[in-house]
Amino acid sequence: MSDSKLAGQFFDAAIGLLTRVRDEEAESIAAAGAAVADTVESGGRLFAFGAGHSSLAAQDVVYRAGGLALMNLLTVPGVVGVDVMPAPLGSALERVDGLASAVLDSSPATAGDLLVIVSLSGRNALPVEMAQNARALGLKVIGVTSVAYAENTRSRHASGGFLRDHCDIVLDSKIAIGDAELTVPGVEAPFAPASTVVTSAIMQSMLAAAVEQLVARGVEPPMLRSGNVDGGHEWNGRVMTENRDRIFYRH
């Protein structure tokens, strides 16, 4: 069987986007890493949020082998993933005003903490309101989004603003509107989205920058090991016990 031309084209597209983000967002990623390091060093807590498929990149940095033990998932019932039934309900909930404030008010997040909000379009009420309210509570907010949407679509939030307008630091994924990299004759809809690949890479690069900052400051970052290597469970148990007041995925 010959190699797939379209499969190769997707890899090329993803690599191109990753290269652009690496080169064009380097300063912002370093700033985000420094903000994470500041929060870790000062005793604050870390949270990540994403709705729908954007939640995949948020979940990828929580309770993860090789990840920072202090990162917690901020969950909104019905929107974190595609397991809600019917699935379109999750998309509808992203447009509901007031949901983000209710979630934040009942969460452990407070002033001095940091929240990473992942939203590809950044145009729905939920991520915009989440960023607004988090900053009002005194959290530092990092937004991971595609700036193209803010420049070429209309906001669905009452303010008319996008996620990028309410963040301390914005990381641009460079994903084109529609999130599909390939087209081919005979298929009416574009296909092969790359947002998960690119956004997850941004999240991991941000945390790598944070680790670099912490080490430079003489602070050992609390990292998790794989539970599938000898001693991994014991290591993780110790790290989570030592940081139990900043970890919420065990309670």
Question: Briefly, what is this?
Answer:
With 251 residues, this protein is an alpha/beta fold. It is built from 9 helices and 7 strands, in the order ααβαβααβαβαβββαα. The chain has one domain (3-223, 231-241): Rossmann fold (3-Layer(aba) Sandwich).
Set out the fold topology.
Layout: H1 5-24, H2 26-42, E1 46-50, H3 54-59, E2 71-73, H4 88-93, H5 99-105, E3 114-118, H6 125-136, E4 140-145, H7 147-152, E5 169-172, E6 182-184, E7 187-191, H8 195-216, H9 232-242
Helix pairs in contact: 1-8, 2-8, 5-6
Keywords:
carbohydrate derivative binding, alpha/beta, SIS_dom_sf, 251 residues
Description of the structure:
With 251 residues, this protein is α/β, with parallel strands linked by helices. The protein has a single domain, classed as Rossmann fold (3-Layer(aba) Sandwich). Helix content is 43%, strand content 12%. It is built from 9 helices and 7 strands. The protein has helices at 5-24, 26-42, 54-59, 88-93, 99-105, 125-136, 147-152, 195-216, 232-242; strands at residues 46-50, 71-73, 114-118, 140-145, 169-172, 182-184, 187-191. Strands 2-1-3-4-5 form a 5-stranded parallel beta sheet, sandwiched between helices. Strands 6-7 form a two-stranded antiparallel sheet. Helix 1 (5-24) runs parallel beside helix 8 (195-216) and helix 2 crosses helix 8. The longest helix is centred in the C-terminal third of the chain and has 22 residues, at 195-216. The protein is globular, with a radius of gyration of 18 Å. Residues 36-221 form the SIS domain. InterPro entries: RpiR-like_SIS (IPR035472), SIS_dom (IPR001347), SIS_dom_sf (IPR046348), SIS_GmhA/DiaA_subfam (IPR050099).
